[in-house]
Design a protein that fits this description.
With 489 residues, the chain is an alpha+beta fold. The protein has ten helices and 23 strands.
Length: 489
């Protein structure tokens, strides 16, 4: 938990930073239009395998049949693209091949689905429990060479008739089929947009009020967590300066994650725990719990009081923004920080000795070429033993360059915390730190797991910003408020 955020005073699946093997390119746009987004010239970036382009951009608003009786038979319905969810003027064409069903979205766009894949993904009540959202069909009873008797393109989806002792018919919505196309993969619209920022974010940082965050209609909670998803952090103003109110605010997101520092923490600089956060020392930009296999997801901080002294300014740095600079200007350093595992530890407590149970711990973690996590705390770094001899000096050069950009005035957002304003940060993206201070300073806060945070945001998104597949199917295939065709299922 090294480095509690100290001070601040405020007004009112995905960033894609391709790794060495990345194939995709994604443009990060600057969204605008409300007070929760900065009006300063936040840079937008296009990440490709070779360069990052940033430019000051004006604000843009965010996106909120016939039977086939044989293997060669085809439906005669004219092809179409899927425009408005739930509205299909003319269904895609469909036909059966030897091992796959082929859909024609238009004259040049096709998707193919293996027969066994389609049968395994039937969502009728016999095959998929509508309440628990769990598979009921026994995958291992499906014949490996199963083949539909015939298929039919209907306005609401692809109807497939399966051979069995008892007739079985499956219906797959067009929007779901398009979203899950794998042969070939098709572009998917993501509701998540990561907004990179530097020091100029201070002109209008993302903020919600305590009343919004606590409102029972959950709209303010959705706004709060959406800001965290976009920016990696968000302030909450007007919070009662008590640990009770702060803990209640934390639990609005999800379960509090207990660690060696306790559940909800309330502390001063008395070294009650073996961590430099419990001192008055300055702390450089870092992420917390790098020594866990699964580092904590969100951190919520609230300064309850600071009397008889000064200092303790809060530092926030967008790790994804700094990574984009490194990728563009120093690609060799970027690759080293994306591939070399960094051992870490927490050993300040006599009854605790934490090290990750995985060696997949580079500074910059990628999944399918997408940057998904920054894991950096130089103070908690252990002995480096897993580098090749020819990597040692280049790796030290790489972290020196990484630190140079982390500590650049262009990257650092320094603010002063005051009682009544809490802040939550995405510990997998935004680094935090503080300046040295004196006097009595009391902080409280909590960790929330990344899975709990993402779950809460997903549930709220279903209600306030549903994806196209959910919008298309919720009216006809929803039980307990969730469609059986939800993209996450």
């Amino acid at each position: 938990m090294s480095g509690m955020i100290a001070s601040l005073k405020t007004s009112s699946r995905t960033l894609r930073v391709p790794g060495p093997a990345a194939r995709n390119t994604t443009t990060l746009r600057r969204a605008g239009g409300n007070a929760a987004r900065p009006t300063a010239p936040v840079r937008r970036a296009t990440f490709s395998s070779s360069a990052v382009k940033r430019t000051s951009a004006p604000p843009t608003s965010p996106p909120h049949s016939k039977h086939a009786g044989s293997a060669s038979a085809s439906s005669a319905a004219p092809s179409t693209s899927l425009g408005t969810p739930g509205v299909v003027a003319a269904p895609p064409t469909s036909r059966i091949d030897d091992r796959k069903v082929v859909l024609g979205w238009d004259e040049t766009t096709y998707s193919r689905y293996h027969h066994i894949w389609l049968r395994d993904h039937c969502r009728c009540p016999e095959c998929f429990h509508p309440i628990t959202k769990q598979r009921l069909v026994n995958t291992f009873d499906i014949p490996a060479d199963i083949k539909p008797k015939h298929v039919q393109s209907k306005p609401e989806g692809l109807e497939v008739h399966w051979p069995s002792s008892q007739p079985h018919v499956s219906l797959y919505p067009w929007s779901w089929l398009r979203h899950n196309s794998y042969d070939p993969p098709m572009a998917r619209t993501s509701s998540s947009e990561k907004i990179l920022w530097g020091a100029k974010i201070q002109q209008d940082p993302p903020t919600v009020t305590y009343e919004e965050a606590m409102a029972q209609d959950n709209r303010g909670l959705f706004k709060w967590l959406s800001n965290v998803d976009k920016f990696g952090f968000c302030f909450v103003s007007g919070v009662p300066a008590t640990p009770e109110a702060t803990e209640e605010l934390s639990r609005r997101i999800g379960f509090i994650r207990e660690t060696q520092y306790g559940t909800f923490w309330d502390f001063t600089s008395d070294l009650a725990k073996g961590d430099t956060a419990y001192t008055t020392l300055a702390l450089g930009a870092h992420t917390d719990t790098t020594y866990f296999t699964d580092p904590c997801g969100l951190q919520l901080f609230h300064l309850l009081e600071h009397t008889g002294g000064s200092g303790g300014a809060t530092l926030l740095v967008d790790g994804f923004y700094v990574a984009s600079l490194l990728k563009e200007l120093h690609p060799e350093a970027y690759e080293l920080l994306s591939t070399v595992p960094v051992p870490t530890h927490a050993a300040g407590e006599p009854e605790a000795l934490y090290t990750p149970s995985t060696r997949q711990t580079p500074v910059l973690k990628h999944e399918d070429g997408e940057l998904v996590q920054v894991r950096w705390n130089n103070d908690d770094r252990s002995v480096l033993r897993n580098l090749r001899p020819d990597q040692v000096e280049p790796w030290y050069d790489a972290i020196r360059t990484w630190y140079k950009h982390l500590s650049s005035p262009d990257s650092e957002y320094w603010v002063q915390l005051s009682p009544g304003t809490a802040v939550v940060v995405d510990n997998h993206r935004v680094l935090h730190g503080r300046s040295a201070f004196n006097g009595k300073r009391r902080m409280c806060g909590a960790y929330i797991g990344m899975d709990e945070y993402r779950s809460k945001l997903a549930v709220l998104s279903e209600r306030f910003a549903p994806d196209p597949v959910t919008s298309d199917t919720v009216a006809t295939a929803s039980v307990n408020g969730r469609s059986v065709w939800h993209p996450s299922l």
